[in-house]
Amino acid sequence: MIVTKRANDPVWTNIYAYAQLPAELRRLDEIAHNLWWVWTPKAQNLFRRISPELWESTEGNPITPTRLLSAEEMAALVADKDFMAQLDEVYADFQAYMNEPADAVRPSVAYFSMEYGLTNILKIYSGGLGVLAGDYLKEASDSNVRLTAVGFLYRYGYFTQSLSPEGQQQANYEAQDFTQLPIEQIFEEDGQTPLILEVPYAGHTVYSHVWKVNVGRISLYLLDTDIPQNSEWDRPITHQLYGGDWENRMKQEYLLGIGGVLLLNRLGISKDVYHMNEGHAAFMSVQRLLDYVEGEGLPFDEALELVRASSIYTCHTPVPAGHDYFDEELLGKYLGHIPGRLGISWHDFISLGRENPESNEKFSMSVFALNTCQEANGVSLLHGRVSQEMFAPVWKGFFPEELHVGYVTNGVHLPTWASAEWQELYTKHFGKDFLKKQTEEATWAKIQQLPNETIWETHQAIKLRLIEHIRTFYGEKWIRNSGNPETTVSVLEGINPNALIIGFGRRFATYKRAHLLFTDLERLERIVNNPKYPVQFLFTGKAHPADGGGQGLIKHILEISRLPQFLGKIIFLENYDMRLASKLIAGVDIWMNTPTRPLEASGTSGEKAEMNGVLNLSVLDGWWYEGYRKGAGWALTDKRTFADQSLQDKLDATTIYDLLEKEIVPLYFQRDGKPYSDGWVQTMKNSMNFIAPHYTMRRMMDDYYERFYTKLAERSARLHADSNRIARELTEWKRTTAEAWDSMQVVSVECSESAAYMSNERHTGDEETVRLVLDKGALTSDLEVELIDAREDAQGRLRFVAKTALTLVERNGSREVYELRFKQARPGHYKRALRIVPSHPELPHRMDFALVRWVALQ
Ligand SMILES: *Cc1c(COP(=O)(O)O)cnc(C)c1O
């Protein structure tokens, strides 16, 4: 028989056909490949115009339309005079922006972060930390400072959230198609061979492709290990953000810190200041130490002196449990080869990551960061204090409030988060260059002169857009999933632009207390079902896939939202991301935040709301602790009444209901025959006038320069001068001082002759003298001796009250006498003692060399 069917398997060749843009349209591609368009509404309008449908369906991705245009469509665009004029205008703006020379005065910065929230289409962020880092890069561009950033290009990024009919969160990880993203691959000099970064791990090498994101004038480099050169074991390093096990986390942090610095070296980039955005990036110090030790032949201590002098660590977590810890075995597996190369022992190395070097604590990334950075900070005033408490065990002998750990309150990038309507209004009324003066209240004060009607209409337009978005974006999905189209439609149609709409969007971590509002359902029912004063709530947020409690909370809220009395009054919007955030924080009337104090380190979504005249109702925690002004929003008191959390929750919930019933709802609906409430609009104006200017990213960046970067760059330059002369001298001084420290002896402590002294009793106004005689032994360094007063607080913790320096009055060989004559100033029960610390003019602060000797007064 004749064989009538026969075929071999096809062998397919991949063809990537990119649209060949005509010369006239090449500029489109150039603009698309610079995220400047993300915060330039004009540029977005241009891309939207090419194809409104594609713009919507790609969540606003400018790459896809230009890639998918057929030759005819391109010809049509080129023939469209209006379009071409718009392109000319946007391109001219872009060029003008890009051509401004960078600020050559302010120090340059290398910035490392695990995540960056720049635009929704680049899924390399999960939440607040990433959005903050993304906003920071955008402001670095606007402020035109010299900053280069490093992070990861995740294949799967963070998950998108969908909800099962039962309300169970489903986490979907979707692969990103790198060819459809506004990124560029970095090539070797030949322009053809992809650059491959080689990072030595213990015993093998990990290879990464390198991508670049143009964030206006700033370059963000992203590492990508998902390439065939790597083993199946290493390819997933950059698959997921905060996914995988501890070992993968270790491999990621190794790559970010060590690989990131190697990349900068490879690209010939060196900076004045190195900034770790969270402890994840702390291993950047490891490679920088290696560079000094192996590259320049410096001894370890001198290298550490130089690394510290140019490094800053920003902590975003208020609780120790939120930090990364690695056990010794895992640390050894990956960094076991490091101490030998640095010329120190394993014990010395691991001690850099321990509060108590002689213990067998796990290696803490934050402690390592603190030990290798001269400066450290929290992200709000309150969080700065919390961080001092949290880090106090690292520097024994000092009180938390004495630590050098400072703060910079987080801010948000105004051009990203203020809606186009508001930006137009600001430009028109505050002046064309208002962005340059965005941190001044005087700029924003002009809002007070605008008619209330203008403010209200601007707000309502954005609110309507939000409602429209919810109806179109969620409608279809919900109808498909609910099996009950009528109900879904009535819920969607029931979203009422005339209702007081309250938004709540954040990660569903338990401490954020999303459940607070649901403490008393009967009372809530009365609030949302008042026919004269309609109130609606929009909830949104993801829970970490490993956080069962958070997922339970989502389910709980979803169940409540389905009860007949809450149907259409409480609505849960799935998949909170930057795109939804930008619509939500601008379109609601109130943004609500109810964390357990002091667990919200800063929070930034409420700041985004401020840029849009949306009022905050929030616990006095994080940024709101500083930001709240009477008559410009609402605050839940910062007093903690109950130690028991459930009682505290009840009380806080009652406060929210009270505020809503007695203040917020009446104010909102006090219409006096107008379509809006004058009192409400005045509150909006106040919040824009008095709060918004202080929470912009520009203010935050200025703070980093003023409080940290400039200081670091100056000291670092001084230490480097003259072949590291001062670094070397300081190292030598530290070594000899540390070696001789214990040879110092207290000869005597004499107190004033007063007999009353012995009774420990004083009266205000009593004068006395303290005289300390020391034999410094082998110690040659200068000392500071001070009298410390402390007091026990209600929890029995010792609090710093005051310190007064003793004066060196006599020196005779190794014998030194210090004296202080003082008056008892305040009444009360004090604890008093003397403290001795070494002193050197080149120390940036005492925690830099924390030798402490306490001396009892008797
Ligand atoms: C701004 C933002 C956050 C951070 O807001 P918090 O107030 O810190 O909760 C989180 N997720 C998204 C998508 C954001 O845009």
Describe the structure.
It catalyses: [(1->4)-alpha-D-glucosyl](n) + phosphate = [(1->4)-alpha-D-glucosyl](n-1) + alpha-D-glucose 1-phosphate. It comes from Porphyromonas somerae. The chain is of the alpha/beta class and 858 residues long. It is 40% helix and 18% strand. The strands form six sheets. Strands 1, 2, 5, 6, 7, 8, 9, 10, 13 and 14 form a ten-stranded mixed beta sheet that branches. The radius of gyration is 30 Å and the shape is globular. The protein starts with 25 loop residues before the first helix and ends with a strand. Bound molecules: pyridoxal-5'-phosphate (PLP). The site of pyridoxal-5'-phosphate has 13 residues, from helix 7, helix 23 and helix 24.
Task: Give a brief outline of the structure.
This protein is α/β, with parallel strands linked by helices and 858 residues long.
List keywords for this structure.
858 residues, alpha/beta, Rossmann fold, 4 domains, ten-stranded mixed sheet, six-stranded parallel sheet, 28 helices, 28 strands, globular, binds pyridoxal-5'-phosphate
> What's the overall average pLDDT, rounded?
94
Bound molecules: pyridoxal-5'-phosphate
Distance between the termini: 114 Å
In this structure, how is the largest beta sheet organized?
10 strands, mixed
Q: Could you tell me the CATH topology label of the largest domain.
A: Rossmann fold
How many independent structural domains? 4
Per CATH, the superfamily of the largest domain is Glycogen Phosphorylase B
Q: Structural class, judged by helices and strands?
A: alpha/beta
Shape: globular
Low-confidence stretches: none
How many DSSP E strands? 28
Q: Cα-atom Rg, whole angstroms?
A: 30 Å
Number of helical elements: 28
Any guess at the CATH architecture of the largest domain?
A: 3-Layer(aba) Sandwich
Strand content: 15-25%
- CATH class of the largest domain, please? Alpha Beta
Helix content: 25-40%
Modified residues (N6-(pyridoxal phosphate)lysine): 608
GO molecular function, one term: pyridoxal phosphate binding
Organism: Porphyromonas somerae
Catalytic activity: [(1->4)-alpha-D-glucosyl](n) + phosphate = [(1->4)-alpha-D-glucosyl](n-1) + alpha-D-glucose 1-phosphate
